[in-house]
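TICKET #2291
ISSUE: user wants both folds in one file
ATTACHMENT 1:
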Amino acid sequence: MPASHVIRISRRVCASLCLADGPATPLDMALWLAVVGDMAAIVDEPDEDGITMLDGWAVSDAAAVWCHRDTLLAATGQPRLSDLARPFDRLGRTEFTLGLTNPRRFRLWRGWEFDAPSRLEPTAVGIVSGMVMTQTMIHGDPFPVAVDALGMARFRSRWSPLVYMRCLAWLAGAGTAKSWQRSRPGDTVVVTIPVDALHRGLGSGTLTWPGDWNARAFGRGGRGGPVHEDLESVGIRLKTEWVQGRVGLYMQTTGLRMTVSRLKVARDQHKATLNAMAAQGGSARPRKGGVAQAPIGF
């Protein structure tokens, strides 16, 4: 089995997408990446009336994307298309938001326009959220991120995919809310999220308190759990520390400090990606003097 299957998407969606409600698993999120990956790389030229595909997607919240059988299987590690029926079903029943400050909910997957891919017809058209797709496109994003979809499909914790995407976005220089503390982008970045913004910072509307995150994701005291192990498997080292501060007469948890670093293998892969982008005429690395505008919904 291949070690990885990399899909490039915008850092905007990695920094903004939040799970609101539903049964989506890491495999399902990897499947969504496989569905949108090819379309995310196109250059959306306006038609004779000056209207782009993104304009239509934002209005209707529906985007038609071409899906190829081989890509779906390679990104998820599944041997047969029939093995993807349940992941597609779970993905279609899961709701997401962009940032969680906007209450509007989106379903990443709407279904097939006609028939699903098959052995005889390996390519088919699927319908995804148009609004989310507008944030996924890498054209115009100077520093898109490379997500290991196959590695994501192997994660043990359902909370890992969006934390993984957040970490990649921060390393690439994606903006954060003004009330957060953060270091400059690079191979290591430190982000401190206020405790009342955990749902937004970590991409989950269902886990909101430190105890919830420790029990489900970060381990005892936040010192290491399934999320840390999942991210290490895709070349990201994560350290989480709960920040204590005085609130009135008592010391309380006021925030979460996350130190995110690329491991050596991931650094080498990242440099290779940057060199390939530079050779194609794209930007090669984030600016060290600051960060980008905060993502949608922040």
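ATTACHMENT 2:
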Amino acid sequence: MIPDAQAEQILSATVSGWFRTFCGTSALDVARDFALDHGLVLTTFEELADAGYGTMNMDVKLYQFKFDLDNPGVDVGPHPVTTHIFFPSTEALKRAYFLSDLAKQGLPEFTERMHLGAHQIGLAYFSEEVLSRYLDHPEMYEINDSLAGGGKYRACRAHHMIAISTFGMASAGSDRATLP
């Protein structure tokens, strides 16, 4: 059970961040977005991780740049800050995904897997039906079909890569699709 309403709000922010970027969320971002104390968010991240709602990289050293628009001559050098980066658990992502409208949008298989917490680069198995959905849209995916001679690249507007073998196994990443 989530410790309190504020922790629920912070977890929700990290899940929303994942749905936008498929990356972890820093305590600095949550503190800024909700006008909370950074130390409070750090503690909440730790409590959420201990309760199994995600994992985190602790004590990450980041560098902030502060700009003074009224005084442009002032040094804006980097200021080190230590924070945590929180990654929501697949269970938290699944719960939020199926409670949201995302599940009803008919997202492509790879995008849906990303929303549910899959890694950006990794092996994934697709049925022929799912693979054909990617191959049927050359305007969205750049495809190198080596079974048909290879070397054919089509315009790519999508940000997904599916490297597909003849056995229906795919390596998913970003930029383009390549068929062996």
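RESOLUTION: both attachments delivered.
EXTRA DETAIL ON ATTACHMENT 2: The domain at 5-99 is CATH 1.10.10 (Arc Repressor Mutant, subunit A).
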